[in-house]
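Quick board copy: two proteins, each given as sequence then tokens.
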Amino acid sequence: MSIEVKNLFKYYGEQAAVRDVSFSVKKGEILGFLGPNGAGKSTTMKVITGFISASSGDVKVCGVSVEEDSLRTKELIGYLPEHNPLYTDMYVKEYLEFVGQIYHVQNLKKRVAEMIKSVGLEVEQNKRIGELSKGYRQRVGLAAAIIHDPEVLILDEPTSGLDPNQLVEIRELIKEIGKSKTVMLSTHIMQEVEAICERVVIINKGEIVANEKVKDIQFGPDKHIQSVYVELEGTVIRNQLMKIQGVTKVEQINSGWLVESKEAGDLRKSISIFAQEHDLLIITLNKVEQSLEQVFKKVTGGEDIKITEFRNEEKESLTYADTDIPSWYYQLLAFLLPIAGVIMYLNNRSNFPNKAKRYALLAAISFFIGALFRLMMRF
């Protein structure tokens, strides 16, 4: 294995950033390492690269322990952190030569020329790094990460902030590098993982919640459950659909039904037979497969889009005691009532100076206008 992580823990004070994390990456594999912000992705990558030490657990790179020989593991790793650390006053070739000297690269000028060509920097090679676009800066960072020909490449958010054209170029570059290197890629862009990676590890709250091939994880944690969405013309009730062999759940969504089954056969065939037997016309019959983004949301505690998206329009009107009165009406009353009370109180105080009343009224009106403006900004 190129990367082996076993029972990794990392504490900051009493807070556990990473809890009992274990996974491995084979030679020549491109792994997507996913998780919400604060899940422990960057911490795990920093432990693997030797930037920070683990509280406990074992991390090996190409069979070498990071704890026992961190210098050797750093020779084996090329690392591109989330915030690309470049010397912007240096020229591209000058910077790559500087990095190559740190790694004691042999035939340095030849190697720099090879890196410039491989990452597509020929046109920009004589410019200062500070004059480059973000896409070309990322290319410089990648070239610096692989100039010493490492076995393992670790990339933390390599496409963050790039435009669509730059995204495609950097993705293709990573795929090309992945043919000969082991690549561990952290990103928030699910399409990127689907396009580049062979396997995905998802971490949430410091713990691994998924570790599978991309093509398998797209079926979700309940991979043995089939889901079919069907719309039928004719009268049908939920209990009738529940009688179809193998069906475990039926839920009405808009004008159709979401039907789930744990049977091995194709559920669509069973529903077609059911429709024929009950003289029903099938309008829509689709197999529902969750995208990687939906699976990610499900295993990290996010909202499941597939089931809840049709309810979005209802949520606002049901916020206050299941009535049809919108929430902003109550918020407006909450602002108006105290202001009205202040004004009435001042008017009833005969000994209160008229000038002070006017100032109080102006202050109350100003407060009301400001509160109303803030309320309007929410919509």
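And the next:
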Amino acid sequence: MRFAYEIPVVVLGAAAIVIVQSPVVVGLTAVEVNNIAKAITVRIDGSNPGSGVIINRQGNTYTVLTNWHVVQLKGDYTIQTPDGQRYQVNPKLVKPLSEVDLAIVQFESTQSYRKPELGNAEQLIEGTTVYVAGWAVADAVSIESSYRFVDGRISGRLSTNKAKNGYSLIYTNTTKPGMSGGPVLDEQGRLVGINGQAITDIRTGGIDFFGIPINTYLQVSSAFVGSLVATNNTASSLQGSNSLEQKPSSVVPSKVDIQSTSQVSTHELENYLRALSAMKPERQEAFEEIRKIVGGEEVPKIDCNDQDSLNYLPQEARDIAVNYCKRSQKILEDNGLTFDRFNQITAELEEDNLKRQVDNASPKLQMSPGSQHVELRFLNNF
């Protein structure tokens, strides 16, 4: 982020009084924004070529946000990342988002790819500079898809509840076929929307270009699981979240967090083991049901505290996962625990901080040999 300083000088006789004002935020250059855009924009090849934005990472699983119309046709799809690597998309995990032209797809990779910083599309007003990036399909000059980066300005805003398929951003950026699903970035290089539509006015011949605000994505993606996202105060909160802050992909606290927690009492540890025992069959049942639905494919990681890990599941599998999270939450509450506290105790056990207390716990509640590594993490992912 750049800052510009204005230093007005007031001259009184031979002396000068210098008043230093607070820094004023200045946008990045177009080249700098383009560097960000290139690092987060992917090319999607398939029945209807388009673009996408890397929106999240969980382990080796990357989630890409794009337009539903890019991936709605049945068939094989591949994703080309900024480094030129190609990855296969599991068609069973292509997930449309409700009532808007958005979808999420996933690919697996051990490579490290950048995620965007999210902006606030509500702050975009007419005249604001925005940038759109994407992979334009071949035309009379280009013999293959090529990356494009286009600047422009917001020319209009539509009421969110009256914008068809979520397209409430209107801008002057001249986009091309194949750029659907690409990012709309503000002057700070933050993701503020997803590009996706161009409409020609037959009366004037003019073309309007439309995008869906990132705020809309956050709202629709959290609608069904917002109540399961942990807050700082209580992991069992049932209030939804439309916050623009990105949620951490893991709910296991860091070593600093662990050291700052209060010591685990024997009573609390017994409650923990009792809850763990009660949740084990729930987890196994949900795991088997989801595995049947995804057709023998590897069951993706599912985190009750991370809505993105549920978004890409097929509807039936997603319902099973949500119900599992709710039942697990109830079991924890019945044993006086929250998701956060459960994970804090889990992390301490994994570091052997509580080994002696576990050994002294009631024999009926002790874990079977070799089960700790496999079972203690199940709340965070299947």
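Board note added afterward: Residues 5-20, 224-262, 363-382 have pLDDT under 50 and may be disordered.
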